[in-house]
Design a protein that fits this description.
64% of the residues lie in helices and 0% in strands. It has 91 residues and is an all-alpha fold. It has one domain: 434 Repressor (Amino-terminal Domain), CATH 1.10.260.
């Protein structure tokens, strides 16, 4: 859920700027396929890449990363633990 929210925010900001995925990929040095996966929430990206994306979009990284309030009563830590538990169940 966290990665989907991050990806959706990146996509919304990018599209709002009239930028294509190819444009953003070239400007950040991130492969377009990787960017597609980030925007769809299918890729767990590094903090460094998030900062590079935010810098390229000329926004704060805090505008990309969801706050605790965005998840209601659960903390990001709790949601991340659930995510990891689900990944372990699948392997």
């Amino acid at each position: 859920m966290i990665y989907q929210m991050v990806g959706a925010r990146i996509r919304d900001i990018r599209e709002g700027l009239g930028m294509t995925q190819v444009d953003l990929a070239k400007r950040t040095g991130i492969g377009r396929t990787t960017l597609v996966h980030i925007e769809s929430g299918k890729h767990c990206t590094s903090l460094g890449k998030l900062y590079k994306i935010a810098e390229t979009l000329d926004v704060s990284v805090y505008s990309i990363v969801p706050e605790r309030n965005d998840f209601g009563e659960q903390s990001i830590r709790e949601l991340f633990q659930e995510f990891l538990a689900e990944k372990l169940r699948r392997t």
